[in-house]
Amino acid sequence: MNKVKEYKVYSTTVCVYCKLLKDWLDRHEVSYQEINLSTDPSLGQEMIQKTGQMGVPVSIITLADKTEEIVVGFDQERLGRILGIAS
Question: Do residues 30 and 83 make contact, with C-beta atoms less than 8 angstroms apart?
Fold first, then answer.
């Protein structure tokens, strides 16, 4: 497994799936930077450029080898594989 260098979660305050994702990450002690688009929608430009969409949650995970994994939505299975978390 490649070590996570940086983890960004794009979310909004009213998004149920965003809350589920953040709760899951907290439960598994995964550090992340939350980018709350409710407080500043302009912060979502990186997310839109990389994914082509405006829906949240979006995880942008930068690994130690500088590759990026982008996960749209709360895909627990895929996130578990990327982060090395058993289901």
Answer: yes
